[in-house]
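Dear colleague,

Thank you for sharing your sequence with our group. We've completed the structure prediction you requested, and as agreed, I am returning the results in plain text so they can be pasted directly into your records. Please verify that the sequence below matches your submission; if there's any discrepancy, let me know and we will rerun it promptly.
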Amino acid sequence: QVQLQESGPGLVKPSQTLSLTCTVSGGSITTSYYNWNWIRQPPGKGLEWMGVITYDGSTYYSPSLKSRTSISRDTSKMQFSLQLSSVTPEDTAVYYCARRVLTTRYDYWGQGTQVTVSS
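Please find the predicted structure tokens below.
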């Protein structure tokens, strides 16, 4: 059974960088055809895809967030991480990590972590 767990600060100040890590257990982030995503949901809004790191380490980002987003991985720890720079209160959201089978269905999700941007 694959499990994903987000971790990181729940409160970030405006203009700072938000950093989250997703730890994967029960599976490998280098297994072919599985891609590892960051998705967020602001209060009262729908899910927003932020970016992905593929099984071979390639990264792709949402055009609207590309200038502020970076996704990386540590294969020795089975972790992948999100950094979102220059945050504003509009970046307040529940942040999820999720596994996707290539570009088809999302099959495993983390429980989500609330991040609030406030001074």
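Summary note from our side: The two ends are 39 Å apart (CA to CA).

Kind regards,
the structure core
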